[in-house]
Each structure stands twice: as C-alpha cells, then as structure tokens.
C-alpha cells in the first residue's frame, strides 16, 4: 500500500492540466466514446467521420485521461488523510504536544523539551506567566498515565516513561474553582469554548468523577491509569495516607501539603514535578531548590515566543510590570528575592575549604573576625582571611548555641573553632565587635557585652555603624565579569552555610508608602533580617582589612594558575 508521503510525492510528479486543457480532454474523450459506437446511418461502411481520430492522438488522450484519474485518486486519499489529521489534532493533540484553536500544531520549545528529559527525582519549571510551564507539566502528567510521551519519536530513548502502567498520579492546584477548574482541567480534557483540545486522547478517556461543586476530581483512562485532582484549600489530612506513582504541583504548594504528599511517594520512590510562577511559598527556595535530587529550569516568557505568544503580547504584558515584578512574572525568579542586595553573588564566589585551606588558614594570611552581639537572640561571629593577592576569603562562622545566649560558653566555643578549624593562634587575629556592645548584658553582672567578651579573652575594637558604606564596599568586592576576565575579590568557603544563606536572602526593604516611593531623595535601606554574619563582613571591610607581608613560614606560596583560569580559585 502506498504511504501518504508516497501519494503526495506522486501528486507532485503528475503533470497538472489547466481548466481549459481538462475541458478539451473531456471533449476528446466524448468524441472517442462516440467513435467506438455502432456506425451511423448513412455511413454503413463505417468510414472515418468527423469524430474519427488517429491512433497517435488516441494514445495521447488516453495518457492524459490516466493522469487525471490518478490525480483524482490521490486527491481523494489526501482528503481522507487531512480528515484523519484534523481528527487527531482534536482528539489526540498530545501527539503534536499542543494544538491552538485554529488547528495549528505547536511543538515543545527548547526548555519544555529539556524539562521532560531530565532524570531527577524532583523537577521544577520555575517560569514566568505564559511561559509554557503548565503545558509542560500537564503533558508530563498524561505521558506518565500512558507510559510514553506521544510527541517524542518512538525510537528516542525518552519516548518511554520509566513508570508502571496502569499507575496512579496526583495533580494539585491552588483552588478547585479557579486553578483546577479553569486551568488544569481545560488543559487535560479540552476547552470547548475556546476550541482548544485537551492533552488526554478522547478515545482513551474511560471515566470521570466530580465533587459536589461539579468540578472533576478523578479521571480514569482505558488502560487503567488513574489521575486524582486536589487543591491547596483542602485540609492537609486529605493529602495523607495515599500512595502515588507520580505527583504534579501546579503553582507553589504550602509546606504542610508538600510534606504530606511526599510521605505517599516514599515507598515507590515516585517522582514529583512543580510548574510555578514563584510568587509565594519562599520555603521552597531554601528547602527544595537546593536539593541534589532536584533540577530547576527557569522558563522565560521569551521562550514561548512563537510557541503560543506573539511579540506584541509579550511587550504589552511586560510594560505593565515593575522591574522586580519582571524577575518573577517574566523570568521565573523567586519574587521574595527580587530585591536582593547582592545580586551578583552566586556559585562563582564559592570555593572548597579542602582545596584552599586543607591545613587551616596559613600563618602568613591576615585574619579578621567580628562578633555581632544581641541581648536576646544568639551572638554571631564571622572570620575573613586576606591573602598575598589581597583577595578576601570568608573562612569561618559560628553562632552561639548556648540556650541562654551566655557569653562565656560562646567564647569557649570560639577558641575551639579557632584551634581546630582555622588552626590559628588566638593572638594572630584582629577582632572587631558590634558598636552596640556597650549595652549592659541582661544575663551578666551589670557588665556590658563588650566587658564580658573582654573578660573571656576577646578584646575587640568596635566596628563602624555605616551600613550603607559597608554594602557598597561588599558589592564592589563581589563584582565579576567572566568575559572580561574580571574575577571577584571576595569568596566564601563552601561549608559556610549561614553566610551563603544570608547573601542569597539579604534584600532591600519594601517601600509600601506611596509618598516614600515618589520621593527622589528616599534612601534605600536593606531589611533588618538575614544580616548577622553580613554586618560583620561589612565592618571588617570598613575597618580597611588588608594583607600584611609577615613571611610564609607555614607553607609554600600559592602556585600560579593555568592560563585563562581564575587567578584565585585556579579554575
């Protein structure tokens, strides 16, 4: 049997006749038919009449007639194929990934394709509005229920999904009446009002069930796979005690619901994926984004250009947003971090302690420390080392673990830390302390906090109060440009969890007062949160901490880096 492709190729080969030529051939064919009839009266001998034609002309006519018949057959087959294609687009749209209301098929864009192919336990499509993240999530849901990805070629390794079939999956949205009913279900089952087909093939849909409000909460396919739908406005208890083979969270879930659902995935080591615009639930950024078994891919609204959005639509939406809103709503960056003070800080500033200071901080490095003291919350200490190349390394951190926040136990812990981790003599460290340390210690004997530390062997100079200047200095130290071979002047050792967390969460304060927003001289100030270690680094920089050449008794000089490498990290 000829394939559709062969039929189309044959059509292209066949010479097409114009309307006039076709009419002429019809006339000739009629003449040919009359010619073969019984001889007419008055012409008993059957001599050639005006309709008689030569054998050569007859052969030519027969060839043209054969071409016309073949074209008619091919056109008929193409019409059948087109009808089949239209049916598939309406009833099996997932074959084409997505189909618009005008019947145009839309394949996955680059980041959607990558999202489906990642082999992580947790996948996050952190995307702006209309970036295609929900479509990716729903198609992955249906692919798991089917056991394969219909839009990927069967010869591709990622066509088949590593999941048992039939299986049981869960899709969670923010609310039944809004998110589930208006977003998730139309993508699963189709939207008749908009004329957009759903991802589930209609001939594979076996059964649905609805809640009292009429919203579908259960879908069963003909292969036995089940899809349950729940919303974040339900009680947490309803998410407990259920086992699933996969789960999809459309928009950020509350932590309590995430934990409850994770319990149901543990036994089967089932995967989870999140498709979300990160405007809520900042706990996800700290607890899930950083996990080793989690892969985050950022969907930018630009990724969906010509895959569902036009340039005019993107520009119109973008024009209505502030710069910080654009980070979340266009680029998928967490909104609670859009006002970051240290936006240039990242993995480029991290370096392994085992590589740089395997035997502690060398004696020839300058070493500074700062104590950030608090009457009520734990005291914090941070250490900064400065090497011969005058690059600064945040090399130590310690928080008072004493339940009463007493100074003496904290000082003992600091001495142990300096002996075992930094491996530096106590008298080789320059020490600063919070300028508020003159405040009487509420758990002391009428002494100030400065007096208490001094009595324990930590005699410190008070640091500067100029926070804004400290921020500017630190921003300058963190600057880098890989293309221009400009490397940071400040690094953070990889085991300093507290310093790293504060650098990634230290944000400018919100100006909720409109009059303040409109004032041109309004001074932007950081939020007084996540700054206990950072204030110490600011004050060390403000104190002019620098390297002093005192010899290199404790080790050999740092080897020269390879050509083109970072002169400090050597890679």
The tally of domains stands at 3
CATH class of the largest domain: Alpha Beta
Rg calculated over all Cα atoms: 37 Å
Helix content: 25-40%
Task: Please identify which CATH superfamily of the largest domain we are dealing with.
Answer: P-loop containing nucleotide triphosphate hydrolases
Would you tell me the structural class of the helices and strands? Answer: alpha/beta
Q: Can you list the strand order of the major beta sheet? A: 7-8-9-4-10-11-3-12
CATH fold title of the largest domain: Rossmann fold
Mean pLDDT: 81
Number of strands: 19
Helical segment tally? 17
Shape: elongated
State which percent range the strand residues make up. Answer: 15-25%
Largest sheet: 8 strands, mixed
Give the termini separation.
Answer: 61 Å
Low-confidence stretches: 1-17, 511-523, 551-564
CATH architecture name of the largest domain: 3-Layer(aba) Sandwich
What does this protein structure show overall?
The protein is α/β, with parallel strands linked by helices. It folds into three domains: 88 residues, no CATH class; 235 residues, Rossmann fold (3-Layer(aba) Sandwich); 185 residues, 2-Layer Sandwich (Nucleotidyltransferase, domain 5), CATH 3.30.420.280. It contains 17 helices and 19 strands. It has an eight-stranded mixed sheet, covered by helices on one side. The protein has a seven-stranded mixed sheet with strand order 13-19-16-15-14-17-18. A hairpin with a 4-residue loop joins β8 and β9. α1 packs antiparallel against α3, α2 packs across α3 and α14 packs across α17. The longest helix is centred in the first third of the chain and has 37 residues. It is elongated and about 125 Å long. The N terminus is likely disordered.
């Amino acid at each position: 049997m000829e394939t559709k492709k062969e039929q189309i190729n044959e059509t292209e080969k066949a010479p097409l006749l114009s309307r006039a030529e076709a009419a002429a051939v019809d006339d000739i064919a009629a003449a040919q038919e009359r010619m073969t009839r019984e001889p007419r009266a008055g012409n008993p001998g059957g001599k050639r009449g005006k309709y008689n034609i030569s054998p050569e002309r007859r052969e030519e006519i027969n060839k043209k007639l054969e071409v016309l018949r073949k074209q008619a057959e091919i056109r008929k087959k193409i019409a059948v194929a087109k009808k089949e294609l239209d049916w598939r687009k309406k009833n099996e749209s997932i074959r084409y990934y997505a189909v618009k209301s005008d019947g145009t098929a839309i394949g996955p864009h680059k980041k959607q394709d990558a999202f489906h192919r990642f082999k992580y336990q947790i996948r996050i499509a952190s995307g702006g509005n209309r970036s295609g993240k929900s479509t990716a999530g729903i198609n992955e849901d249906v692919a798991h229920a089917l056991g394969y990805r219909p839009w990927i070629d069967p010869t591709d390794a990622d066509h088949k999904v590593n999941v048992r079939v039939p299986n049981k999956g869960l899709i969670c949205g923010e609310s039944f009446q809004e998110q589930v009913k208006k977003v998730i279900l139309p993508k699963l089952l189709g939207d008749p009002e908009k004329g957009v087909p759903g991802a589930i093939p209609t001939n594979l849909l076996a059964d649905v069930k609805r809640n009292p409000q009429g919203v579908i909460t259960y879908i069963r396919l003909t292969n036995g796979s089940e899809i349950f739908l729940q919303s974040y406005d339900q009680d947490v208890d309803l998410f407990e005690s259920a086992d699933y083979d996969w789960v999809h969270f459309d928009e950020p879930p509350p932590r309590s619901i995430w934990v409850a659902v994770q319990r149901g995935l543990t036994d089967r080591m089932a995967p989870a994926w999140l498709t979300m615009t990160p405007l809520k639930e900042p706990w996800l950024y700290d607890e899930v984004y950083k996990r080793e078994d989690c892969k985050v891919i950022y969907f930018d609204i630009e990724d969906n250009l010509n895959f569902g959005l036009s340039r005019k639509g993107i520009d119109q939406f973008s024009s209505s947003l502030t710069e910080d809103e654009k980070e979340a709503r266009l680029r998928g960056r967490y909104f609670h971090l859009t006002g970051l003070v240290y936006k240039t800080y990242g993995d480029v500033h991290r370096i392994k302690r085992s590589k740089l200071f395997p035997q502690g901080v060398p004696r020839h490095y300058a070493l500074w420390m700062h104590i950030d003291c608090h009457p009520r919350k734990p005291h914090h200490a941070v250490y900064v080392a400065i090497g011969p190349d005058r690059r600064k390394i945040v090399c130590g951190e310690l928080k008072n673990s004493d339940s009463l926040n007493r100074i003496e136990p904290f000082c003992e812990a600091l001495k142990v830390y300096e002996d075992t981790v930094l491996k530096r003599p106590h008298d080789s460290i320059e020490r600063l302390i919070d300028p508020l340390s003159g405040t009487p210690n509420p758990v002391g004997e009428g002494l100030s906090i400065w007096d208490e530390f001094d009595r324990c062997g930590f005699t410190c100079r008070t640091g500067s109060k100029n926070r804004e200047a400290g921020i500017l200095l630190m921003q300058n130290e963190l600057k880098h440009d890989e293309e221009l071979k400009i490397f940071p002047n400040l690094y953070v050792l990889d085991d300093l969890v507290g310093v790293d967390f504060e650098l990634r969460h230290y944000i400018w304060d919100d100006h909720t007062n409109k009059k303040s927003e409109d004032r041109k001289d309004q001074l932007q100030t950081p939020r007084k949160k996540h700054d206990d270690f950072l204030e110490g680094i600011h004050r060390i920089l403000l104190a002019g901490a620098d390297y002093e050449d005192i010899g290199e008794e404790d080790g050999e000089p740092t080897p020269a880096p390879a050509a083109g490498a970072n002169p400090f990290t050597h890679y």
